[in-house]
């Protein structure tokens, strides 16, 4: 992952509070980062439903301009209106800034769950596969939508770029093994090319990083039977989307899962979860995933010590102080939990 050259002093960054619980958890995250002394100087912008309300577009030009300038963004969850012809603003952001690598670490946060001590990283290709949106209907008789078709894309160039990213990330973070996940037995060309490129790239890292491969269905089962066998997983867009939520389930739910979208010219950090409209405005949302995304953002700009302090403080509040929100089997409000983090950071 490219680390920008600014290692001291303030760093301009775009902040998108988002929809639903987004503004509540963003407020919590900003307060915690302030107590930590994080370097970010926020340029607050809108997207999602908030973007439609303020600028008539889920991805307003001002938001794109801001990220183009700062090359760094922390984003709350965005609601995608069903119908109305709007494409997901999150997907559009990934395309606009060619954020080709989606990095989703899965680390157990809470003791006593079904799976403890999980610490793996999923690297998902973010721009190709079945998410390119090449879909259409074919009419049969008087049914205009009798057949639905989708085309997936794998390019050698993009496969090389994402698989190299996974190996470089493994090297930089002291990881030992990369597992290439595919479905080359059925989608022989689409994911066969990904596997072929993966095996070629693996040769460049022989003796430094081990490599194996798994068919996606077998990988899903193995993740549940023995997740500890995995270290870094690299896979295509759709498989990565599904497996990353499976991994979130292993480590305690969506409230624990952060994600980073990394490109050559920008990086965008977010929680994996959505805008949780069912609990919005109740003051009970869990800001942990967005806080962990902010920790990844600190890593990205070279503030590794602050990132580790933030992760350590979250661990201490959850496991030593036992202060947790309801989705983490606790009773704390967003505010109680945030104050507990700030108390520890200021102690
Ligand atoms: P969701 O992740 O918003 O919610 C799923 C369940 O998890 C809900 O019960 C919710 O209350 C709970 N939950 C999620 N985050 C939580 C948190 N931080 N604290 C406590 N509980 C939490 O998924 P959904 O309901 O399928 O989607 C709602 C909206 O979010 C949709 O419009 C969807 O398009 C959007 N979405 C956005 C993103 C993104 O911006 N990256 C990701 C996924 C979904």
Ligands (ions, cofactors included): nicotinamide-adenine-dinucleotide
* Number of helices, where a helix is a run of at least 4 consecutive DSSP H or I residues: 11
CATH level-1 class of the domain at 11-118 and 251-346: Alpha Beta
Low-confidence spans? none
Strand order of the largest sheet: 2-1-3-12-11-4-5-10-8-9
Q: Please indicate the percent range of residues in DSSP E strands (runs of 2 or more).
A: 15-25%
User: What is the β-strand count?
Assistant: 12
Work out the helicity level.
Answer: 25-40%
> What is the CATH architecture term of the domain at 11-118 and 251-346?
3-Layer(aba) Sandwich
How would you sum up the major sheet? 10 strands, mixed
Oligomer: single chain
| CATH homologous superfamily placement of the domain at 11-118 and 251-346 | Isopropylmalate Dehydrogenase
Order of helices and strands: EHEHHEHEEEEHEHEHEHEEHHH
**Overall average residue pLDDT:** 93
Which radius of gyration do the C-alpha atoms yield?
Answer: 20 Å
Tell me the distance between the termini.
33 Å
CATH fold naming of the domain at 11-118 and 251-346: Isopropylmalate Dehydrogenase
Write structural notes for this entry.
The chain is α/β, with parallel strands linked by helices and 347 residues long. It has a domain at 11-118 and 251-346: 3-Layer(aba) Sandwich (Isopropylmalate Dehydrogenase), CATH 3.40.718. Helix content is 39%, strand content 22%. The chain has eleven helices and twelve strands. The strands form two sheets. A ten-stranded mixed beta sheet has the order 2-1-3-12-11-4-5-10-8-9, sandwiched between helices. Strands 6-7 form a two-stranded antiparallel sheet. The protein starts with 10 loop residues before the first strand and ends with a helix. The mean pLDDT is 93. The structure holds nicotinamide-adenine-dinucleotide. Residues 21, 77-80, 90, 254-255, 270, 273-279, 285-286, 289, 327 line the site of nicotinamide-adenine-dinucleotide.
